[in-house]
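fyi for ur records
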Amino acid sequence: MRWGEIGYHKDRASFFKKLVGIASCFVMVIATAPGEVRANNTLVKISRTGEFVVGVRDKFLPVGYRNEKGDWVGLGLDIAREIHKKLEENMGKTIKLTFLPVAPWTRTPMLVDGNVDIVCDTTAHTLRRDEVVDFSITWLVSGARLLTDIGSRIREAKDLAEKKVGAIQKSSCERVIRDLIDTGVIKPPAHVMAFPDHSRGFAALRRGIIDAYCADERVLATIKAHASNSSRWKVIGRLLTRDFYGLMTRQNDSNFLDFVNFVLIDLIRSGKFFEIYARWHGPRGVVPLPMNYETQLLLKLQSWPY
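which gave:
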């Protein structure tokens, strides 16, 4: 898949060579004036240490995890490897690639403190987070959808009228269902049941206690993929909420952020991004989940010309 209609750049190598010169100039300047090193200059740090340290998830299929052999694998890690490859090409030398596990509550401080150079996972880009870190272009869009039995007549949220629907207690998914009831989208109203975790919510769906379960589409796809009878379930409906995922970098480091964005855009325009996505979310992937319309549209709109 290529976005040829918006001017795909055939000679990508020549474009990235310009970045080589930029990175090399920074390294030379820093080498001659070590007292003037700025805190946020990741390209210089990587070149000086010879190591690229990436914060990744280690138990979050298929974004980042360790397989049965103990190897680091996943969608986010494949993106990190593509960035690493371009770093080596730009700097003209071998760069060690190191993965460090992060959790939602540790990834930001680990990045800010310099323990990792980038976080490659599904971190939602929010204004509050943007006060302390920077984000790449959006590389995935996700949000709440519904999981139902394959034989259910429920196709969209409006079909939940007079049905029983579950969601995590006090979650954005519970709120959006209640908002749809309050605004008359779901009319007559559905009966909302709140659960403390996804396993109990899915158990209620499996036993017929609820007619549908609302959660992030990636959570639902993972639940379906690991169910003993996965063909019995389907993820349906449009996105009811939207989270825009970006790769996190340190704040005010425009050179490295530009570099990351150039790599992402190159992957999108060449079609390789879609190959990587299909590897994990395609029909034979670890967690099958067709790329939603919002992601496809944003990827296309963000593929700025060279």
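The chain has ten helices and 14 strands. thats all i got for now
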